[in-house]
Write a structure and sequence with these properties.
Chain A is of the alpha+beta class and 168 residues long. Chain A has 5 helices and 9 strands. In chain B, 44% of the residues are buried. The chains are: A alpha+beta (168), B alpha+beta (165).
């Protein structure tokens, strides 16, 4: 594959934990309960994907690893919810931008992600960026793999975040 | 160096709540190991200048990576043709096309770094008994996909708790 893809930047996140909820019966609204607890505990969710099909609900959320002890304390008070959550520690996000809603670009990035061998746990497009969740230990290596096929401007900013905004 | 700043709003500010109607939602479930093959197929779909309005993906089930892809109605033909390709059927565990659907989205200042946005939006919809098919948040964007005719009601519900210009 030639070096034909163009992007303005690639950004990597801080270390996060992936939280999943899967409910296969009606009558429970685990997402609402989870979001309420996180909101009340002032915990940000940098990534969220939630889908419902028939009576099944499946949600995937990212929480900064430093916030996980507070999140677990908040969730412990809701036993029904707590038993339905699964945690995958040490994940991170790679954001490539802009995607310009272009399927050729997005498809090529997905193909590269698949070829890199890094697992994909989640993906979401925003107004500009395409954000993918994978193992934190593989973030830098995956970003380097992408840059073998994606041209970035010579003056693009560093991959790693230079500031850390924390909600209090 | 640590800098502490306070950003507080009585009502959370957005840059506007938008609703798009008459959209197509394709939900394609694949085995995670087939990601590169799906990417290849998606890239080929893009050669026809097909634009996607939104893509979300996550593990709907443990060994199943579900892609939710939203397109404008004018791309429906390409989408149906795409989903019927043997090469796409071969890598898919299931394909569901839902149309028409409606998409509501909004962006706001520093949404990617702030807590409580998704909770406030979800709560406002729940109070009006408005169910979504898919919800996604990343960076400063929040997206919901609804069945037909729910978009305007959802916009009204969210307009009561978020500030819009």
């Amino acid at each position: 594959m030639g070096n034909t893809l163009q992007a303005n930047g690639i950004k990597l996140s801080l270390e996060m934990t992936l939280v999943t909820i899967r409910v296969f019966s009606s009558g429970l609204d685990p997402t609402a309960r989870f979001l309420k607890l996180m909101g009340e505990s002032r915990i940000n969710l940098p990534f969220l994907c939630d889908a419902a099909r028939d009576t099944r609900t499946s949600g995937t959320y990212c929480i900064l690893s430093e916030d996980i002890p507070r999140a677990k304390r908040a969730i412990a008070g809701d036993e029904t919810l707590a038993t339905r959550l699964k945690y995958l520690p040490s994940v991170g996000s790679i954001s490539v931008f802009p995607h310009n809603f272009n399927m050729a670009f997005i498809g090529a990035i997905l193909r590269l992600m698949g070829q890199s061998g890094a697992p994909l746990y989640g993906l979401a497009t925003s107004i500009s960026a395409m954000t993918m969740i994978t193992d934190f230990s593989r973030l830098k290596q995956t970003a380097e793999y992408l840059t073998r096929h994606v041209s970035l401007p010579g003056n693009h900013s560093p991959f790693n975040p230079d500031i850390h905004i924390k909600s209090m | 160096m640590e800098t502490i700043a306070v950003y507080w709003e009585k009502n959370i500010k957005t840059y506007g709540i938008q609703v798009e109607k008459k959209l197509c939602l394709a939900q394609v479930d694949i085995q995670p190991s087939r990601l590169a093959a799906l990417g290849q197929q998606v890239a080929e779909l893009g050669r026809d200048e097909t634009k996607v309005s939104l893509i979300l993906a996550h593990h709907f089930e443990p060994e199943s990576l579900q892609f939710s892809m939203v397109f404008q109605e004018r791309f429906k033909e390409q989408l149906v043709e795409f989903c019927a390709r043997p090469s796409v059927e071969e890598i898919s565990k299931s394909i569901i096309i839902d149309a028409p659907v409606e998409m509501l989205y909004f962006h706001g200042p520093h949404f990617g770094d702030r807590y409580g946005i998704a909770d406030m939006a979800g709560h406002a919809l729940q109070k009006k008994d408005i169910r979504y098919i898919v919800m996604g948040c990343s960076a400063a964007s929040v997206h919901f996909i609804f069945p037909e005719n729910a978009g305007d009601r959802a916009k009204k519900a969210l307009g009561s708790v978020f500030n819009t210009p």
